[in-house]
Amino acid sequence: MVSRTRACFFVMLLCVSLNLQAAIKSSINHSLIEQGESIQLSIDLKNIDGNKIDLTPLEADFEVLGRSQQSSTIIRNGKLDSSTMLVLTLLPKRAGDLQIPSISIDGEQTESHALRVSKVTQPTAVEGGIEMLSTLSSQQPRVQQPLVYQTSLLLGRQIFNATLQGPDITAGQALIEPLGDQRQYQQTLNGRQISVVEQAWLITPQQSGALTISPARLVGQIQTGRQSRSPFSGGFSGFSDPGEMRRIQIAAQGYQLEIEPIPAGFTGNTWLPAENLTLTDSWSSDQFMVGEPITRTITLQAEGVSRHQIAELALPDIDGIKQYASTPDVGQQYENDVLTSTLTSEVTLIPERAGQLFLPEVRIPWWDVKSNSEKTVILAARSISVAAAKNVQRQPVPATASATAKPQDPIGSSLQEPALQNPAPTSATQTRTQPTPINSVGAVPAQTSSVATNDQSLSIGWIALFGALVGSLATLLIVWLLQKRAHRQPLKSDAKLQSGPHRSLSSLKEACHSHNAAAARLALIEWGQQFWPECSNLNQLSLRVSPELREAIADLHKRSYSQKSYSQKTDQAEQRWQGYALWNAVQAYKGKEVADKQPEDKLAPLFLS
Q: Which domains does the chain have, with CATH numbers?
């Protein structure tokens, strides 16, 4: 009986010994600390890979500040005994009685350790301490309503190696992002200079129900102010050691919220909770004309809404007007504790017919979080008067104006010089220059008349010969001058057409054949400026070209601004811009423009409808 009892006891001791051997050795350097102080947990890594240890069980009550490995070698009984220790630096997240849980390593467990953390009451900033305050923009938010979590750190003393940790979501679903830059300034409270550090975060709940926001934290080091121990006297020396630091951790306020769902009676297609909403528009011109583009700028401004919540505006179709919307520009700013997002959309409108056209209103339903009710912002309807397209043509130059202008032309002067040198004789001139002798009875002597007749005929013959010679020379001179001017003027026009537009036409041709809308816009503007330097955009260029080219420019407008047209619903294959139509229109207009060129040094701009 006794032997059986001894055998059972031996088996029990053996089991206990095996359990003790199975446990991995671990230890802590302190079991009683103050809040803000850290401890060291040492784990024996004999035959264990320290990189494979899972530290997840520690994250509930501790923050792992650092990890390192220490190796040592000891000679025992003439044998070398080497060991490796994993040292973890842990910072408790709260005060009270804590338990360092055991860690599983390769199927074995480390020892658990009890730890008591004494709460340290931090003095206020006015008293020379550190405070951390927080505010939340709404305590009863709805789903997808942005919340602004803002912290104010009040520093009444100097802090070192400080790290500001943002809030976290421990229950529920929400998106968190920093909002704006950190702001620092000085403030005087009760005669003490206080440093204030402000930081805000944007929290957007993604579902209704419970939402728990853990507080933001500040982790840093402060001087303890403890007296230094003298190595000679064995006591305190009476002065503070500036190098002795103590780690502190200060938390702001956390929040537990109940997120309300979207109201069942909301009529809008897009859920938009906001504090305020405005919708305005402006126009590039008040004069509407068929085929002439007008830019309409629509601005949507929302308070209490992030830039991710503003959707692209859905504009209604307008009968008689084509609409091409550009990519909206969305901005966000946070000033004076107010979050404001702005969407700006530019829409190009091209009237297709004259008369009174009606622009329908634009309505956007939204939810007012202040009054907890649905509201609608409206961009009022408008009636516009569209004028017919202008058809400006070149007027012929009056004949009187041409005759008046010729004496001022150097070539015209040379054309008139022969007529001035050889005027046609009149009867009055003949009477003055060639008087006929008369006798007393009034008869003309025969001989004298014959001689006079012969001399007059000879003189008239020489004059006629000389006049014919001069006329021939003048005619040859006129023909030579006209040929010289005819050759010189086309060369000047050709040089003007080929020197500037040739390069831009090559670029335009390449862009059209490669279907590159952006490059085609630049090349087309450069080509147009060779003829009309005042044209700085395609809208101005379209007013000066043919209807076919204007239509091609309008199509380029459509493809350049947006892949989505509000007035026409096209499939994805049709949305890609094709450059052949634009290149053919430019070629046709270029040929017509060269054919219509007048042999003048300067031509007024030609406006075609």
A: 24-118 (2.60.40), 130-259 (2.60.40), 274-387 (2.60.40), 498-595 (no CATH)
User: DSSP code of 309?
Assistant: S
Concatenated DSSP letters of 188-257: EETTEEEEEEEEEEEEEE-SSEEEEEEPPEEEEEEE--PEEEPTTTSSEEEEE-TT-EEEEEEE---EEE
pTM of the complete model beyond 0.70: no
Q: Measured in Å, how far apart are the chain's first and last C-alpha atoms?
A: 125
- Residue 26 vs residues 49, 90, 101, 588: alpha-carbon distances, Å: 15, 14, 11, 90
Over residues 54-98, the pLDDT tens digits come to 888 888 888 888 888 877 777 777 777 677 888 888 888 888 898
- Check if the beta carbon of residue 300 is closer than 8 Å to that of residue 341: no
Dist CA 599 CA 494 (whole Å): 12
**Nearest one of 65, 43, 62, 39 to 52, comparing CA atoms:** 43
Report d(CA 594, CA 497) in Å as an integer. 9
CA-wise closest residue to 372 among 301, 270, 278, 266: 266
Residue 428: phi, psi to the nearest 5? -65, -35
Question: Smallest Cα–Cα separation from 282: which of 293, 298, 265, 270?
Answer: 298
Extract the tokens encoding 354.
Answer: 């004259």
CA distance 506 to 520: 11
Convert the pLDDT of each residue in 540-556 to its tens digit: 777 788 888 888 888 88
